[in-house]
Amino acid sequence: MNIGVFDSGLGGLTIFRAFLEHLPTYNYVYLGDNARVPYGNRSPEIIYRFTKEALNFLFKKNCQLVVIACNSSTAAALKKIQHNYLPKYYPGRKVLGIIKPVVESLEEYQSLKKISRVGVVGTTATVNSKAFVRQIKKAMPRVHVYQQACPLLVPFIEEGIHKDNRALRLVLKNYLNSLTKKKIEALILGCTHYELLKKEIQKIVGRKVQILTEGKIAAEKLKEYLSLQKELEKKLEKKKKVSYFLTDEEPNYKRLMKLFLKSHSSNIKVQLAEIDNV
Ligand code: DGL
Predict the structure, then answer these.
(1) Which residue's alpha carbon is nearest to atom 8 within ligand 1?
(2) Is the pLDDT of residue 277 over 90?
(3) Spacing, Cα 36 to ligand 1 middle (Å)
(4) Sequence ranges of the binding site
(5) 63 catalytically annotated
(6) Those residues with Cβ within 8 angstroms of residue 267's Cβ, 6 or more apart along the chain or in another chain
(7) Bridge partners, residue 130, by sequence
């Protein structure tokens, strides 16, 4: 059986790239719902529906385990997926999100450095859900969490603007100002795309702020998870077969795949996914 990776579009390839680098032996199916991206400014109800549809597609592609790489989808839908949808329709299959691994990694950092002020940036859906705040507070009750929604960043990045650009810097400064004022000591980049902005963000928040990006953390936590879930791990095929499904072959998809997958983007075949309503 396969490992599925789902994102609202192509940004999730930043996470997937880390899986290919750190866990290269497994068979993967990547699904990007780029016909309906962005999810980040949609309602939780719609995000839940889209997420169910995507999971249904991936389960039919023989995925035993699906990692939701999309923060907006994890934030708005994961709980309901795990508590309602899976037990009813796909008992035995597993769905993991992207928020828990990052919060666990923050906890490791916090126990070393004793920080108490953390910032989170993400889409409007992620920030409104307060999923990061809840999980950080649960793990580290004394830590103060400050959030900032940054809805303009995904369009900037998808336009290829992620460094050395005055307009981008202005927008970033504007968004990050509320967090730097709070004297944050660590900052979670809680969106698939933001990893590409790490250097620009670091310049603004200063070198002392620890920035957590998601790809490598998610890959390491998945490795840990698989080493504990022996029964599940045994079911996974290890033939390095990777399939890419998108819901739209729109004019930019090849450029975006290259942007996010970097060296892993050569010689890949994309198939069009037909997603059923559920
Ligand atoms: N993948 C989304 C996330 O990580 C960003 C793009 C979108 O808004 O759909 O939140």
Answers:
(1) 40
(2) no
(3) 11
(4) 7-8, 39-40, 71-72, 192-193
(5) no
(6) none
(7) none
pLDDT in tens, 110-127: 999 999 999 999 999 999
pLDDT of amino acid 210: 98
Top-level CATH class of 99-215? alpha beta
Q: Give CA separation, 180 vs 173, 175, 177, 183, 266, in Å.
A: 9, 10, 5, 5, 39
pLDDT for 24-66, tens place per residue?
999 999 999 999 999 999 999 999 999 999 999 999 999 999 9
- The 10s digit of each residue's pLDDT in 70-102 is 999 999 999 999 999 999 999 999 999 999 999
Kindly report, as residue ranges, where domains of CATH 3.40.50.1860 are found in the chain. 2-97+216-272, 99-215
DSSP assignment string, 12-64: THHHHHHHHHHSTTS-EEEEE-TTS---TTS-HHHHHHHHHHHHHHHHHTTEE
For 182-238, the pLDDT digits (tens) are 999 999 999 999 999 999 999 999 999 999 999 999 999 999 999 999 999 999 999
Q: Are 67 and 2 in contact (CB under 8 A)?
A: no
Q: What does each C-alpha distance from 21 to 171, 181, 223 come to in angstroms?
A: 32, 37, 12
Does this model's pTM top 0.85? yes
**39 Cα to the center of ligand 1, angstroms:** 6
Question: Annotated binding site for substrate, which residues?
Answer: 7-8, 39-40, 71-72, 192-193
Q: Is 191 a catalytic residue?
A: yes
List, chain by chain if needed, residues with CB within 6 Å of any ligand 1 atom.
Answer: 7-9, 11-12, 37-40, 70-72, 122-123, 126, 154, 191-193
Q: What residue owns the CA closest to ligand 1's atom 6?
A: 38
Domain 2-97+216-272 in CATH 3.40.50.1860? The answer is yes
